[in-house]
């Protein structure tokens, strides 16, 4: 399955980023394809 993870926090190493990373890690281990998009870091 393809999964898009969209984050909105501009702080790279805070709680939201940690939770997103843990979700991505688990989904990747389960065999899914992950695309992460950090909205706050794009113009």
Calculate Rg over CA atoms: 11 Å
> What is the averaged pLDDT score?
93
Q: Runs with pLDDT <50, length 5+?
A: none
Order of helices and strands: EHE
Strand order of the largest sheet: 1-2
- Judged by helices, strands and strand pairing, the structural class is alpha+beta
Q: How much helical structure, as a percent, in the residues?
A: 25-40%
Distance between the termini: 28 Å
Largest sheet: 2 strands, parallel
Oligomer: single chain
Task: Please give the number of β-strands.
Answer: 2
Q: Name the shape in a single word.
A: flat
Beta fraction of the residues?
25-35%
Which descriptors would you attach to this protein?
43 residues, alpha+beta, two-stranded parallel sheet, 2 strands
Give an overview of the whole structure.
There is one protein chain. The chain has 43 residues and is α+β, with helices and mostly antiparallel strands. The chain has one helix spanning 15-29; strands at residues 2-7, 33-38. It contains 1 helix and 2 strands. The protein has a two-stranded parallel sheet. Helix 1 links the parallel strand 1 (2-7) and strand 2. The longest helix has 15 residues, at 15-29.
């Amino acid at each position: 399955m393809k999964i898009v993870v969209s984050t909105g926090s501009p702080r790279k190493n805070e709680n939201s980023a940690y939770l997103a990373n843990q979700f991505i890690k688990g989904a990747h281990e389960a065999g899914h394809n992950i695309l992460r998009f950090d909205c706050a870091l794009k113009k």
